[in-house]
């Protein structure tokens, strides 16, 4: 049991697109918070260091931890040389969202049918594609999803061992519920296959419409069945195997209207009507016959030119962008489950750009809130005050001679008390290499102060027992803990550190 994601089609990226695809894949993994962990042991303490995912010299990346979810899952990875992505169990939070987005990237690149799925359910391209358009600066659309017959056939053929190879639920997922945009003869055919054609007998039919032509075909097939009896299917297949020229020159009175209809109706219409009449599974019959029957019909244009243009415009419409903080926002059934009474009045926690300060680069990808700006400005003032005091404001505590050991002990104490707060690898070694500089010693002294003064507010982390993903985010992301995590992120991001702390 568990949650698994996958891509159903072939994951073949054309060689000329692989470089771009690989760069985009690594960018979405990076901004999605996928991390690689490294363990170091010094002075009897063990620390875990964070690093954004990076390709190895062999062109591979493997990972199982997400910075925002703060939890581990089964391994996932990407091979840039052949554009192959894999994953195992992914949970249902931030790690899962990013993995599914990675599979959605294949759907946007590969022209052949294929879909990003989670536990066998096609995922919404408007949600995942919206984030891809934002983070990658692309203009992906849902156009591929509206190739309804090709997609439905692919789905049904891949699930022939199911009682219902293609259901209304799958149709709804395929088009993200947008039936108006998907409207047309292919949608009509699929609905007739799913629900039958009884409404043609009882409902009002507009003369000359597609339902009218299907109805005429149904009545003609019923007559054809009466004439051919037990040889109905055999005779029908023989007719459907005729090329257009033979059907145009038909002289068989028994075929009459069928031959005329076949000049503009797809062979599938005859087959799903026959399957319904004989009470047989359509998709089995279609798989057996599809390569044997004609495909030379010249479809009528049932919709007005105005409606055709409108649908074409809708289908090619660029998916609206979704910002990273909104994409990674969690609000499922377990997100705030069993929130302690003392936290209920504080409201629910939702990811903001303040929690993504590690990714700040001066663009609008990460926008610093007024509260965050005020807090960092305050910390900057405190940092300058500490630098003006002897030994960076902490007596002999953070003198250069004992800096490394004190640094490691403090990081270990923070992780032990607040749980799962890991420093970034670049920040860790940067501080060690500059232990003689007062800016770093003062920054460490300030970290010690934040650790101590937030303990009371942060003690709610005691409720984080058992599986992390079942603990309320109001507990795991309590404000005291976030302050420590955000501060470490600022210290790891040299650009923002220079902006506020001038080192």
Describe, in plain words, how this protein is organized in 3D.
It is a single chain. The chain is an alpha+beta fold and 503 residues long. It contains 25 helices and 8 strands. The chain has helices at 18-31, 94-109, 125-136, 148-158, 168-174, 179-182, 185-195, 199-202, 210-228, 232-240, 244-248, 256-262, 267-277, 282-289, 305-315, 324-327, 341-344, 370-387, 403-418, 425-433, 438-453, 455-458, 473-476, 479-492, 494-501, and strands spanning 5-7, 34-42, 45-52, 60-66, 71-79, 84-86, 116-118, 121-122. Strands 3-2-4-5-6 form a 5-stranded antiparallel sheet. A 3-stranded antiparallel sheet has the order 1-7-8. Helix 1 (18-31) packs antiparallel against helix 2 (94-109) and helix 2 crosses helix 3.
Outline the secondary-structure elements:
Blueprint: E1 5-7, H1 18-31, E2 34-42, E3 45-52, E4 60-66, E5 71-79, E6 84-86, H2 94-109, E7 116-118, E8 121-122, H3 125-136, H4 148-158, H5 168-174, H6 179-182, H7 185-195, H8 199-202, H9 210-228, H10 232-240, H11 244-248, H12 256-262, H13 267-277, H14 282-289, H15 305-315, H16 324-327, H17 341-344, H18 370-387, H19 403-418, H20 425-433, H21 438-453, H22 455-458, H23 473-476, H24 479-492, H25 494-501
Helix pairs in contact: 1-2, 2-3, 9-10, 9-13, 13-14, 18-21, 19-21, 21-24
